[in-house]
Amino acid sequence: LEVTGAPILSENQKWKGVVLVFHDITELKQLEQMRKDFVANVSHELKTPITSIRGFSETLLDGAMKDEAMLEQFLQIILKESGRLQSLIQDLLELSKLEREDFRLNIESIDIHKLLEDLTPIVKQHAEQKGVKLETDLQGESYIEGDSSRLKQVFMNLLTNAVNYTPEGGTVSVTLEDTKNLTRVSVSDNGVGIPEEEISRIFERFYRVDKARSRNSGGTGLGLAIVKHIVEGHDGTIHVESEIDRGTTFHVEIPKKFTEN
Ligand code: ADP
């Protein structure tokens, strides 16, 4: 609590009283703490790949590169880690763009059915590499007012996650349902699931249930934060149902008519 005060004086400059203003600064403090945590997280996330890139390059230069197998192996690691840095920086820039005061979605009439069909081949390829099956149930057209490249990002992120968090032999499915006023896309998998007490946290930046798994699959920990931003920017909602070792479903609902907030 922060208190500021000012005297109330009468016409002949006599004290009549005092005004006290109580500011509740809990929220400000929380925001400040979140900002600090974010900077700490970013620094840590950047440091890990850089440490590894430096370490492996030094070892190579110290003589390891004479061994061809080692040369190849270490270069692969360097390549992977620099790719990770690149995705991280891309996602950070994206998030900061979305959070800008003057950011506007590029609204046009789009067919969500077609948008999902356009994504299917890319996701299918990723799924096949992992031995995961992709099923789609997209009936008819579904026109909404939205930002097509941003919505592509949303579904791409959800589908990539679904494939990443589903073991070999599993299935990812995407369904599209249309009602009078909104369109609902659900992305389901029968993968690892999310513990109930962590479901509410997965949309936070850098929150991961299993850090090692996320990193291994190339995740930045920012995907769902970006997804939530875009969905809410469309006045839509996203919610999650999940059960450990059973799988996860993300439901995204977007109103068909766009209203600027
Ligand atoms: P990441 O890059 O780590 O995937 P996200 O922001 O996309 O970051 O997701 C945050 C976390 O939510 C993930 O690290 C993972 O623990 C969990 N998660 C997201 N999607 C799924 C899913 N389909 N199944 C299980 N866990 C998931």
UniProtKB/TrEMBL annotation:
Superkingdom, natural source: Bacteria
Location relative to the cell: Cell membrane
Coiled-coil intervals: none
Domain Histidine kinase: 41-258
Protein name in the entry: histidine kinase
UniProt organism field: Halobacillus salinus
UniProt lineage: Bacteria, Bacillati, Bacillota, Bacilli, Bacillales
Residues of the full protein shown: 324 to 584 of 584
